[in-house]
Amino acid sequence: MTRSLVEQQFGAHAKAYATSAVHAKGESLARLVTLARPEKSWAVLDVATGAGHTAAAFAPHVARVVAADITIEMLAEAGKLAAARGLTNIETVRASADALPFAGASFDLVTCRIAAHHFPDPKAFVAEAARVLKPGGLFALDDNIAPDPALLPGFAPAEVTAAAEAYNAFEHLRDPSHQRALTCAEWQGLIEAAGLEVEHAEVIGKAMEFDPWARRLGATDAVVAELADCLASARGALAAFLRPEVRNGSPWFVLTEAILLARRSSP
Ligand SMILES: C[S@@+](CC[C@H](N)C(=O)[O-])C[C@H]1O[C@@H](n2cnc3c(N)ncnc32)[C@H](O)[C@@H]1O
After folding, report:
1. CA distance to 21, 41, 141, per residue, from 64 (Å)
2. Ligand 1: which atom is nearest the Cα of residue 55?
3. Pocket around ligand 1: residues whose beta carbon is below 6 Å from it?
4. What angle do CA 173, 94, 82 make, to 5 degrees?
5. Count of CB atoms within 10 A of residue 144's CB?
6. From start to end of the chain, where are the E strands?
7. What is the pLDDT of residues 126-162, one digit of tens each?
8. Residue 2 DSSP symbol
């Protein structure tokens, strides 16, 4: 069977995600748990679980977690993390975000963190998340977002749109399996169109050290040099969004995550 680009990319670099500080310890991890207020009786689905950091963060607070991902090597990492932490209530399942192999109304909480920018069909993903949620259940999405005028006041809309395109091209150069980072407003629109009610939205800036970020998915030296050049030459709205700087001789920049919580209405 042919493996998708995502599976090839993440299959070859699964271990890097087990140890990545951004994924294992990023601010959005604790923030998702705080905002979702998990309950002991809950069944949770973590879509695109990667190395399982989000699944493992919720597992101690709930009855069970299904950690789902399309890439089997990532599921193996998620299984190792659960075993290392003695978390016996995590089950791993191979699943594509836009065709979840679960019955409707089976989860109290569906999470998805730092992954949806890889999905070819975000609308189908949100519809699937809404379908598998129980009435009254919660959808908690966290993902890297592209800039929109609300994030970059003071820039003309056309300049912000150009910065969003340049940002997505920057991500795609580093990782060809990157599809598109949506804006926070686009996510809100998709979530509401799926019949969920957005209860909370916030954005978090995360400082990224350029080199480990650029190399995590195996980019060649030539691609890393091109990415470094894009960052150093960013101007205007793109520079205001990525905020490049040099710390102790190493380039850093900022990625922006949005966290959205939305509820499926009760009957
Ligand atoms: C950066 S990792 C996820 C990080 C993880 N959620 C966390 O909190 O640390 C991205 C994951 O998305 C998965 N993925 C990408 N496209 C997918 C899809 N269409 N369906 C399911 N998983 C997908 C990849 O296999 C990869 O494991």
Report:
1. 25, 8, 19
2. 8
3. 6, 10, 17, 23, 48-51, 53-54, 69-71, 74, 96-97, 113-115, 118-119
4. 95
5. 20
6. 43-47, 64-69, 90-94, 107-113, 133-144, 196-209, 245-247, 250-264
7. 999 999 999 999 999 999 999 999 999 999 999 999 9
8. P
